[in-house]
Design brief:
Helix content is 55%, strand content 13%. It is of the alpha+beta class. The strands form two sheets. It has a three-stranded antiparallel sheet with strand order 3-5-4. Strands 1-2 form a two-stranded antiparallel sheet.
């Protein structure tokens, strides 16, 4: 058996990647968490998860994102296998973005966080107000 290979009874041998130090800049896990935790990726995945969508429609629906940032984030999500870019040979050429099975899996995992944020925002806002009031008196 090779190093990094785990043999489980009843299963084929399967290669596992040992966890790295997620606090190290070059750790693949950290890099993926950085991608998911950036300012725009979750919003883009949420929209693309509903249906395939064109670039300008994404830009219209995500308030505050620049064309450059949308392009960069879409390229990164595509590189990570979370988004698929489809070019339609029309005049003019039409490009749409859809979610991959891997992206859909991530989105379903993120849905619990999205639901928590939507239902707990009032509690977070109340905590922020209390914090700001305490800081004013310090």
């Amino acid at each position: 058996m090779q190093d990094g290979t785990l043999h489980s009874p009843g299963n084929f041998e399967e290669t596992i990647i040992l966890r790295g130090d997620v606090y190290a800049a070059q750790c693949p896990t950290r890099q993926l968490l950085d991608r998911v935790g950036d300012k725009w990726s979750v919003l883009i995945l949420t929209l693309i998860g509903e249906k395939s969508i064109r670039f300008n429609e994404l830009k219209r629906n995500i308030n505050g994102i620049s064309q450059k940032m949308l392009s960069q984030t879409l390229r990164s999500l595509e590189r990570d296998g979370l988004v698929i870019r489809t070019v339609e040979q029309t005049m003019p050429v039409a490009v749409s973005y859809g979610i991959t099975p891997l992206g859909a899996e991530l989105l379903s995992t993120l849905q619990a966080l999205i639901n928590w944020a939507e239902t707990r925002m009032n509690a977070v806002s109340a905590a922020q107000i209390l914090y700001d009031q305490r800081k004013e008196t310090d």
